[in-house]
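Fold it.
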Amino acid sequence: MRSLLRVHHCAVRAGGGPSARLLIPAPEYGYSGPRTGLAHGRSAVVDKVTGMARIAVVGAGTGAMAAAARLAVAGDRVTVYERSATYGGSVGRHEHEGFVFDTGPGLLHLPAVQRDLFVKTGKEPLERCVTLAQVDPAIRHVFADGTAVSLPNASRAGVASALDAALGAGAGERWSAFLERARDAWDRSRRPLLEEPLRPDHRVLERDPYPAPRRRRLLRPARQAGTVAEVGAWELTDPRLAALLDGYALAYGLDPRAAPAGAALLPYMEQTFGSWYVMGGMRELARAVYERCVARRVEFVFGADVVRVVEKDGRAAGVELADGAVAEADRVVLGVRPRAGLVPGQRVWRAGDVTVRPGAGGEPVPGRFTVLLSLRGARGPEAVHRTVVHPADAAAEQEAVFGGGVAAKPTVTVLRPDDPATRPDEAHEAVTLTATVAPHGPVDWTDPELRRRFADAVVSAGAAVVPGLRERILHTRVRTPAETEEETGAAGGSVPPPALAGAGGAYLHPGNRTRLPGLYLAGGWSHPGGGLAHAGMSGTLVAGLVVEGDDFRGSR
């Protein structure tokens, strides 16, 4: 790892109240957060005086907590209702005899989103609350033919050189040309896709922003890549480069065969803004956001299962809990996936709105299968924080994952953090293996034999890159979409993908403002979609809409 930022624990201080100050910092790392009439790049302090409003937030995921903290700073009285016994949503942790594992995201991309949250909600910046380490190399890819390549963190030139050295001359140039087109897509879609509330006329996002080159062919019409898989086959040409690109899509739960070419934004963001690890595990980030909420006097009610949003006089007026109790509120923020019975009828959306739906082709949204391994033996000097092991038959895997089946040989991500907090001592190592899989339902992930068989396939992939893996195993913990569903309440244990432009709007998520006055959506199941950075952006947008009203337009 490089760029290790050593910090002290974030102090918890009370704050907020009817008079609060919102600090708007200068932009960095390509994300500035929504602005309110300030000149781009200027810093200013805005005094906001407002009456106390009661806001009920459903769910304690990181996106919902981001909204809660910002609203509390703006002077609102905020209460979070969480069905489980803790905060963080999918950003979980498993501990066993001194070994510590993340059970959700393993790395942080676009950390400026979290930095913006901490600057605008208190005096302590993010780096005072957690220790960030930029991982280098950012990722290692091991392909089915035995070729391997390690890509440096946030270095376009370094990535090109590494690809040329591993895959042959020209590979780096083709990848660099692809990233240039991805940058164009980023520039075209960044504001409406990420930094602004979803427009009522969202058709601008139905068009794919990726400028795929036209390929002329003799006596046949010119062709232009429209999906991730086509970009790999027609523009990158090398099957290993295509597998590298497909791997980015699959890691986010997207089908490369159907996901629009605009998904090029995902590798672009990672390779441009870097990959970061939170020392102590990614759960430490959720802890820091929770503590920031507490410091801003946000109230949390755990073990509170919200079964219905209460409607009164044509607007959201509170929430009803499973025990029949009703908590009144002036506004409600849903940080969970809206479902039948939870939201009041058809008033949430109208014809033409983006609604909650399954994948673009009607297929279920995938989940994650994770194997947590406690190993004897030290983490070797050859270890890389993140390695992706690609199978020989990617097409068969994609057919299984997005067709409701089980792949015989999955793509496996191996995480080996160089973090003393994850292991009992230097003579042991904690390793996490993850594969994208069909959700619980189409596949019965409670079946013991299926779990054992698929876990063995995942471990076999991991053994190809972790020396002596099987012989070193002290303890194994398997987590499937069934566990994710039980712990987070997400149907099928599905993990929401980020929103994408293109494909006729099929990959967009519902807007943060609903048609029912007083009801807002935050978190991965709303605009701009899943992932730590995107969920954090959703919390920012909800806070802007509540504080400034329906005319809020995000960044300016």
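Residues 1-9, 11-50 have pLDDT under 50 and may be disordered.
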